[in-house]
């Protein structure tokens, strides 16, 4: 792949969008490669995915405006569907996904970050949905995920004004979980990923499913979903080993995802 780099070590995959001359902007080719990389993940081995951008300036500066500028109505809708389908794949991956936002996360970049489970960023990160300043709306889920992650009122302010916010404000409104000096961002992302990967993978995946699906259901239905995922864990070897070790006051053996 020309624009996506993937490395896997100790059950953690790091996916880097590598188009630094264009600030890692998303064109059709980058989106196709991103989908190919996500589809190709070995989910038997990979327990956590970290997504970041190459260089020191940008996570993803947005969708490629040069490509979008000549789109027709039908082509624009198709381009939005292409991005939405890929970001939805990321959002619904069985494994946790961490966005390590290392600079600009604008438009499609912010939308990509929001499709991840957890967002952490560097001190120089900048977030925004600048689309209305270009005569369009967000097309890759920005109007939907932003309102769900922060608040409808704050989301509307960002969407209508097309104004960007810096890392401290993103932290204040809950768009990101933590802010780090640039040189500490990837070590922090990998440390978090390693901590997640060390836990029982089936239980972690069940938590993700319960949270994501439960948020879309009334509470009475959501807690039934939780009960079922809770019960499922008691059929696993990892649960037996984890509780055995706890009762024996021992460190559990490495979890085997079974």
Q: Any overview of this molecule?
A:
There is one protein chain. 47% of the residues lie in helices and 16% in strands. The protein contains eleven helices and ten strands. Strand 1 and strand 2 (12-17) form a beta hairpin. It starts with a strand and ends in an 11-residue tail after the last helix. It has helices at 28-39, 65-68, 73-91, 108-114, 142-149, 152-161, 167-172, 182-197, 201-214, 219-233, 237-247; strands at 4-9, 12-17, 48-53, 58-60, 97-101, 104-106, 118-122, 126-128, 165-166, 178-180. Strands 1-2-3-5-7-10 form a six-stranded mixed β-sheet, with helices on both faces. A four-stranded mixed β-sheet has the order 4-6-8-9. Helix 4 packs across helix 5 (142-149). By secondary structure, it is an alpha/beta fold. The model has no long low-confidence stretch (mean pLDDT 96). The longest helix has 19 residues, at 73-91.
Task: Provide a brief overview of the structure.
The chain is 47% helix and 16% strand. It is built from 11 helices and 10 strands. The chain has helices spanning 28-39, 65-68, 73-91, 108-114, 142-149, 152-161, 167-172, 182-197, 201-214, 219-233, 237-247; strands spanning 4-9, 12-17, 48-53, 58-60, 97-101, 104-106, 118-122, 126-128, 165-166, 178-180.
What are the main properties of this structure?
258 residues; alpha/beta; 16% strand; globular
Give the SSE layout.
Elements: E1 4-9, E2 12-17, H1 28-39, E3 48-53, E4 58-60, H2 65-68, H3 73-91, E5 97-101, E6 104-106, H4 108-114, E7 118-122, E8 126-128, H5 142-149, H6 152-161, E9 165-166, H7 167-172, E10 178-180, H8 182-197, H9 201-214, H10 219-233, H11 237-247
Parallel strand pairs: 2-3, 3-5, 4-6, 5-7, 6-8, 7-10
Antiparallel strand pairs: 1-2, 8-9
């Amino acid at each position: 792949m020309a624009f996506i780099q993937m490395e896997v070590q100790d059950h953690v995959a790091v996916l880097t969008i590598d188009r630094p001359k264009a600030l890692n902007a998303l064109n059709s080719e980058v989106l196709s490669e991103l989908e190919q990389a996500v589809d190709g993940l070995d989910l038997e081995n990979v327990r956590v995915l970290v997504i970041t951008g190459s260089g020191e300036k940008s996570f993803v500066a947005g969708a490629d405006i040069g490509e979008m500028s000549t789109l027709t109505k039908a082509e624009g809708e198709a381009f939005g569907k292409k991005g939405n389908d890929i970001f939805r794949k990321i959002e619904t991956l069985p494994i946790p996904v961490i966005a390590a936002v290392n600079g600009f996360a604008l438009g499609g970049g912010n939308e990509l970050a929001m499709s991840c489970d957890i967002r952490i960023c560097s001190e120089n990160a900048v977030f925004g949905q600048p689309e209305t300043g270009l005569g369009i709306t967000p097309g890759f889920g920005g109007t939907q995920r932003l309102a769900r992650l922060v608040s409808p009122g704050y989301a509307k302010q960002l969407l209508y004004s097309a104004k960007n916010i810096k890392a401290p404000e993103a932290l204040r409104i809950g768009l990101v979980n933590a802010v780090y000096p640039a040189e500490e961002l990837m070590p922090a992302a990998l440390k978090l990923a390693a901590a997640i990967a060390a836990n029982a993978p089936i239980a972690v995946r069940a938590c993700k499913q319960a949270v994501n699906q439960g948020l879309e259901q009334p509470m009475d239905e959501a807690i039934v979903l939780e009960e079922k995922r809770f019960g499922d864990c008691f059929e696993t070897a990892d649960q037996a080993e984890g509780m055995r070790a706890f009762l024996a006051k021992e460190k559990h053996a490495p979890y085997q995802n079974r």
